[in-house]
Queue: 2 jobs
Job 1
Amino acid sequence: MSKPVSPDLLASGILPFVIDAGAGRKAAIRGRMVRLDGVVDSILDRHQYPPAIAELAAEAMVLASCLSSTMDFDGIFTLQAKGDGAIKTLLADVTSAGAVRGYAAFDDEKGKALEAAPLGCPAPMMDLMGVGHLAFTVDQGKKGRYQGIVPIEAREIKDVALRYFRDSEQIDTALFLAANMEDNNWQASGLLLQRIPATGGTHDEVLPMSDEEADIWHTACALMATLGRDELLANDIEPDILVHRLFHELGVSMLPWRVLRDECRCSPDRVEQVLASLSPEERLEFADDNHQLTISCEFCKTEWSWDASDTAQG
Ligand SMILES: [Zn+2]
């Protein structure tokens, strides 16, 4: 069931910004403000998940958008979590061209029990997913693939991701993610700060944090902590105004806004490749009583139908 979306919800994207360092350095901190209301709202509207599951899916899409934009890559950034709880799989991906997708696969019984559950504000990832892990993958096709994995051992997806940055990447990172449904529309935003380590020497070694850098980092984190959830989600405050309001005393510069959109990568060609991998008997087995074989994209819910008896002969 589709519903009208107010125009101010449609501006989804990422505002990259940098916080200045002391003399001799370009920047001390990279920042990302993500506003994903329109994208999250249209994706979740197609799925109609129980609200508690939708909330975690929204946070995952915001997190994937934040992280994808801190990396220089040409391809697909994927966040995928697997667990043994109500949600079995949580997936959000963002291409370097700004196309976002997301979905959650969950246990029918446990999902039904969550229909009336209130939003977690933020979503309790560990309760919803049980024992499992969160993986980040950058896939650049022929140029290579990189993956990082962290166990789900914190209540919120934010803290699971922070643990990854602390233990695996050793990059100081601060994150604030929020999603909320108001008047039947989803709002979803995020703010990320990441310290850019100073490098030097002949091999560009990471230099220990200077006192001045430590001051800048701790001040930025303290300023970020003054931001309220409602303020982060407020779609009547432009992202650049919010970022300026928070960090102006440190010297903050905005970089160009990057548009994100709800866009799937499925196509009839791809679905035909799936069909081609099935034997004629399998095609008939998956078809309905009228020999119609229907394949539906788990991301965008687009459905394609074929006459299985035709394909079986072909
Ligand atoms: Zn699709």
Job 2
Amino acid sequence: MIISMIVAYGKNREIGLDNKMLWHISEDFKNFKTITSGHHILMGRKTFQSIGKPLPNRTSIVLSNSGFTFDGVHTFNDIQKAIDFAKDSGEKELFVIGGANVYESLFPYINKMYLSEVNYEGKADAHLKELDLSTWNLNEEKYYEEILDTRGDITSPSWTFKIYNKKA
Ligand SMILES: NC(=O)c1ccc[n+]([C@@H]2O[C@H](COP(=O)([O-])OP(=O)(O)OC[C@H]3O[C@@H](n4cnc5c(N)ncnc54)[C@H](OP(=O)(O)O)[C@@H]3O)[C@@H](O)[C@H]2O)c1
């Protein structure tokens, strides 16, 4: 089973503030939906609560040590048990969808990364750890322009989508 990480981060690796996302990029959301649909998605309890409900067409797995439960969600207090659950269900690609805490602890298990590098700088209380890309191959890259409103203000920042695979 491939274990993938999917994350959108700012110039200083900002990923969230007050348990919310920092920008609204509809094309990135669409991409996220397309990529993860039909798969198991693994997240921390805080990320699940920020989304608020299980995402349709996906099997939600939540990590929690505090006994968190929610209808339609599979909760585990152990990373390996969460991974085994997806594997035993026949999953071919499990997606780790955040947040900061979970990206960090799952990183050793990750063999594919879907990164959205967002042209954004601002206050954040959740950051992605610096990634050492020397052991990864860049396999895809696509640039998306910023979107402006009628007054010329940025409503959606520019971003670059990249897919990396771990070197064999
Ligand atoms: N930009 C992006 O792509 C992106 C994606 C996702 C999330 N985010 C942002 O990231 C922020 C949340 O990140 P976060 O680091 O604060 O929280 P998080 O990683 O979503 O959740 C942390 C919680 O997950 C549980 N947990 C984590 N590792 C565990 C383990 N090994 N075993 C058992 N339980 C474990 C614990 O829950 P208990 O406290 O219940 O024990 C822990 O408090 C939000 O701002 C969110 O919007 C951004």
